[in-house]
C-alpha cells in the first residue's frame, strides 16, 4: 500500500464509519435510557427507506419532503413498536425484552418481504445526483480508455460530508433535548430508576415512547443516508448495518453517545484497513467485526468511553 | 336430485384428473430473488403452453429457498417429503444447487437446474442435471473476450468467496487468461457486502485495466458504482450473474459498457420452433423482452416434461434416466444435449450494456 492508497482508504474508512456512527447513536440512546438492546433498530432503518422509496416512486412526492415524512413515519413506527411489543412486558425480566426485540425484528423483515417483495430495488433516482458525486483533491487529467479522466487524486463522496453534518446536527439536538428540556430530564430520570421516576408523577410510558420515537427517527436518518451511499433497498438491508451499529455502540461503550460516534468511526476504519492491508481477508470482514465485539466484551466490557455500571442487587 | 347429480359429476371429473407433481425450488425472496422471479416467469409460460403430459396435468408447487444455502437443502427436502414431487425444477445459484442437489441425490429424485453453471453441481451425481453450459466454458469465453476482443492484459478479479459459482468462474477465467498471456490478481468480497471501496482502491493501485466480477447482480451493480466514483473507467466484465434488469436499475450510468457472458438474448439468432414460441408468448404475457434466466426456466420445464413423456410414468428413477438421455431437444436457448455427466453443451452469448439497455454483441461457440 502506498501513501496515496493509504490516504484514499482512510477516506473510505471514515466515510463508512460516519454511517455506522450515525446509526449507532440511536441504538446507544435507547440502551442508555432503557437498558434495552433494540435489535429491531436495523429493521426500522429498512422500513424508513421503503417509506421514502414508495413516497417518491408511487406518491410522486419530492425527495426532501419524502425523507422528512419517512423519518416521522419511522418515529411513529418506533412509538407503536414500544406500545405493542415492549410496554406489556415492561416489568418482566430483561431477557424477555431482548427476545421480544428479536421477534419484532423478524416480524418487520417478514412483513417487508410479504408486502414489498424480497427483490432488491434501486434507490438511485430517488435523491438528487449531486449526492453521489465525488470531491476530487489533486490528480491530473489524462486520456485513458478512450476518454478524458482524472487520474490519481483523492476522492471523497459528497454524501459523506452530508453524513458528517447530519451527525453533528443530530448530536447537538440530542444534547439539547436530553439536557435542556423537561422530557430530557425525565429521560435521564428514567435511565436511573423507572419505579421511583413514576412515583414522582412522571408519565414513564410517555417518556419511553418518546425515547423510542427519537431513536427510530435517528435510525431512519441513518437508513436514508445509507441508501444514498449504497443505492439499493431490500427487506434484509437493515440487518448487517444494525449489527455493525450495535458493535460500534459496544465498542465505544454502550449507552454513551460520544462512545457510539467514536466506535462507529473506529469500526469503519478497522474494516476498511483490514481489507486494505490484507486483501485476502476481505471475505472475513464481518467475522472480524464480531471478533472486535467479542474482544471488547471480554477485555473491556464497558467499552472505550463507557462507564462501569454498578449492578443493583 | 339434479343438484346431487351435478355435484357427483364434478367430483368424478376432479378425481379422474390425475396429476404429475413438479416441485419448483427457487429463491423467491432474498439477495437473488430477481433471478428466482425470472426463472419462474419462464416456467409459467412453458406451463401455460404445455400444461399436461401423457394425458395427465402437470402440477407446479413453488418452494422458496430464501437465497440461503441451508434453506436450499431444506426446501428440496420439503418438496420431496411433503410435496411428494416426481421431479424438481430448480435452484438458481450453484451454491444452492450443490446443497439441494445432495438431498435430491440422497432421495433419488431427478432435479434439473436451469442456471447453475458450476461443474461440481452435477459431477459424480446421477439425478442432478442442467440445461445450461458450465463455467469452464463460460470462464474461457469471458477470458477470450477480455484478451482478444477488448485487448486488456491486466485484470483484477473480484471474487465472491461465499458463492461456489463465483469461485469456480474466477478460476476458470484465470486459467485461460494466463494461458493467453495476460496477468490477473484477486480481490475478495462476500455476498451481501455493500462497501467495496478498499478493494477497488487496491485494484487501481495494482494497475488493473479491467475488472472481472464473476458474482451476482446485487454486488456487481454496487462495485460498478463505487469503481466509477473512485475513478476507475476501464471495462467491466462479468458472467451470467449480471443478467438481470436490476443490474441496470441499481447500477445506472456506472454499468454502461459492462460486458457479460450469458445463455440467451432475444436478438441472438433463434434456432428452434420453441424459441419463437417462447419469445412470442413471453412478450405477450409480460409485455417485456425475456431475460436468459426466463428462457432457461422454460427449457428446464420442457426438458423435464419431455423426459416424463419418454419415461411414460411418474417414476422418479425412470424420469432421471430419461433426462440424462436428452438429445437434440429444441429449447428456447438452442439445441440441448445432456451428456452422461448431466451437463448441457451449448454456445455462449456476449451481451453489452449500452445506454441502459442489454445489447447483443456476439456468440462464442465451443472450440
TrEMBL record, chain A:
Signal peptide: none annotated. It holds the Pfam family BPD_transp_2. InterPro entries: ABC_transp_permease (IPR001851), BCAA_transport_permease (IPR052157). Keywords: Amino-acid transport, Cell inner membrane, Cell membrane, Membrane, Transmembrane, Transmembrane helix, Transport. It is a multi-pass membrane protein. CDD domains: TM_PBP1_LivH_like. GO terms for biological process: D-alanine transmembrane transport; L-alanine transport; L-isoleucine import across plasma membrane. It is found in: Cell membrane. It comes from the Bacteria. GO terms for cellular component: plasma membrane. One of its GO terms (molecular function) is L-leucine transmembrane transporter activity. The chain crosses the membrane at residues 6-27, 39-58, 64-85, 97-119, 156-178, 207-226, 246-270, 282-299. Belongs to the binding-protein-dependent transport system permease family. LivHM subfamily. This is ABC transporter permease. It comes from Kosmotoga arenicorallina S304.
From TrEMBL, chain B:
Belongs to the leucine-binding protein family. PANTHER family: LEUCINE-SPECIFIC-BINDING PROTEIN (PTHR30483), PERIPLASMIC BINDING PROTEIN OF ABC TRANSPORTER FOR NATURAL AMINO ACIDS (PTHR30483:SF6). The lineage of its organism: Bacteria, Thermotogati, Thermotogota, Thermotogae, Kosmotogales. Residues 19-356 form the Leucine-binding protein domain. Gene3D superfamilies: 3.40.50.2300. Keywords: Signal. This is Branched-chain amino acid ABC transporter substrate-binding protein.
Amino acid at each position: 500500500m502506498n501513501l496515496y492508497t493509504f490516504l484514499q482508504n482512510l477516506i473510505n474508512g471514515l466515510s463508512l464509519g460516519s454511517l455506522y456512527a450515525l446509526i449507532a447513536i440511536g441504538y446507544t440512546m435507547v440502551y442508555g435510557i432503557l437498558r434495552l438492546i433494540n435489535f429491531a433498530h436495523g429493521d426500522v432503518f429498512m422500513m424508513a427507506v421503503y417509506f421514502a422509496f414508495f413516497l417518491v416512486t408511487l406518491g410522486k412526492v419530492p425527495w426532501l419532503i419524502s425523507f422528512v415524512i419517512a423519518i416521522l413515519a419511522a418515529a411513529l413506527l418506533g412509538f407503536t413498536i414500544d406500545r405493542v411489543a415492549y410496554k406489556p412486558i415492561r416489568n418482566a425480566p430483561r431477557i424477555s425484552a431482548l427476545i421480544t426485540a428479536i421477534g419484532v425484528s423478524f416480524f418487520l423483515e417478514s412483513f417487508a418481504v410479504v408486502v414489498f417483495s424480497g427483490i432488491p430495488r434501486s434507490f438511485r433516482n430517488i435523491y438528487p445526483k449531486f449526492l453521489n458525486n465525488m470531491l476530487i483533491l489533486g490528480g491530473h487529467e489524462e486520456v485513458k480508455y478512450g476518454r478524458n479522466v482524472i487520474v490519481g487524486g483523492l476522492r471523497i463522496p459528497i454524501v459523506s460530508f452530508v453524513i458528517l453534518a447530519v451527525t453533528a446536527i443530530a448530536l447537538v439536538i440530542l444534547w439539547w433535548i436530553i439536557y435542556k428540556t423537561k422530557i430530557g430530564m425525565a429521560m435521564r430520570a428514567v435511565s436511573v430508576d423507572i419505579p421511583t421516576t413514576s412515583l414522582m408523577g412522571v408519565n414513564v410510558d410517555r417518556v419511553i415512547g418518546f425515547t423510542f420515537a427519537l431513536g427510530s427517527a435517528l435510525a431512519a436518518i441513518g437508513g436514508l443516508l445509507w441508501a444514498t451511499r449504497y443505492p439499493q433497498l431490500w427487506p434484509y438491508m437493515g440487518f448487517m448495518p444494525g449489527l455493525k451499529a450495535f458493535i460500534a455502540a459496544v465498542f465505544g461503550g454502550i449507552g454513551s453517545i460520544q462512545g457510539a460516534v467514536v466506535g462507529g468511526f473506529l469500526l469503519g476504519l478497522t474494516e476498511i484497513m483490514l481489507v486494505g492491508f490484507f486483501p485476502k481477508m476481505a471475505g472475513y470482514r464481518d467475522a472480524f467485526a464480531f471478533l472486535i465485539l467479542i474482544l471488547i466484551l471480554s477485555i473491556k466490557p464497558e467499552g472505550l468511553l463507557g462507564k462501569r455500571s454498578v449492578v443493583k442487587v | 336430485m339434479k343438484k346431487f347429480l351435478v355435484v357427483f359429476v364434478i367430483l368424478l371429473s376432479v378425481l379422474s384428473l390425475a396429476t404429475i407433481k413438479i416441485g419448483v425450488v427457487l429463491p423467491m425472496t432474498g439477495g437473488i430473488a430477481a433471478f428466482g422471479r425470472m426463472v419462474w416467469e419462464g416456467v409459467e409460460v412453458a406451463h401455460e403452453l404445455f400444461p399436461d403430459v401423457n394425458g395427465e396435468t402437470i402440477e407446479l408447487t413453488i418452494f422458496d429457498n430464501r437465497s440461503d444455502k441451508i434453506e436450499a437443502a431444506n426446501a428440496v427436502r420439503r418438496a420431496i417429503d411433503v410435496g411428494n414431487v416426481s421431479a424438481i425444477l430448480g435452484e438458481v445459484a450453484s451454491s444452492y444447487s450443490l446443497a439441494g442437489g445432495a438431498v435430491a441425490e440422497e432421495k433419488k429424485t431427478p432435479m434439473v437446474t436451469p442456471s447453475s453453471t458450476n461443474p461440481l453441481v452435477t459431477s459424480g451425481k446421477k439425478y442432478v442435471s442442467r440445461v445450461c453450459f458450465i463455467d469452464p466454458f463460460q470462464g474461457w469465453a469471458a477470458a477470450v473476450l477480455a484478451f482478444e476482443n477488448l485487448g486488456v492484459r491486466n485484470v483484477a478479479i473480484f471474487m465472491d468467496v461465499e458463492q461456489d459459482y463465483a469461485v469456480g468462474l474466477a478460476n476458470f477465467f484465470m486459467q485461460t487468461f494466463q494461458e493467453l498471456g495476460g496477468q490477473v490478481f484477486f480481490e475478495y468480497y462476500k455476498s451481501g457486502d455493500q462497501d467495496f471501496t478498499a478493494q477497488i482502491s487496491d485494484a487501481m493501485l495494482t494497475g488493473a485495466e479491467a475488472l472481472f466480477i464473476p458474482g451476482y447482480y446485487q454486488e456487481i451493480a454496487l462495485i460498478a458504482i463505487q469503481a466509477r466514483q473512485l475513478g476507475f473507467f476501464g471495462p467491466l466484465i462479468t458472467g451470467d450473474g449480471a443478467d438481470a434488469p436490476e443490474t441496470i436499475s441499481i447500477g445506472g450510468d456506472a454499468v454502461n459498457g459492462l460486458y457479460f457472458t450469458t445463455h440467451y438474448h432475444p436478438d441472438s439468432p433463434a434456432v428452434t420452433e420453441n424459441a419463437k414460441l417462447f419469445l412470442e408468448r413471453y412478450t405477450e404475457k409480460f409485455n417485456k423482452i425475456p431475460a436468459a434466466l426466463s428462457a432457461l426456466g422454460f427449457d428446464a420445464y420442457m426438458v423435464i416434461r419431455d423426459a416424463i413423456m419418454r419415461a411414460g410414468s411418474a417414476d422418479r428413477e425412470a424420469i432421471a434416466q430419461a433426462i440424462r438421455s436428452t438429445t437434440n431437444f429444441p429449447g428456447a436457448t438452442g439445441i440441448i444435449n445432456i451428456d452422461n455427466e448431466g451437463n448441457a453443451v451449448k454456445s455462449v452469448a456476449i451481451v453489452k450494456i449500452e445506454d441502459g439497455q442489454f445489447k447483443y454483441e456476439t456468440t462464442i461457440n465451443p472450440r
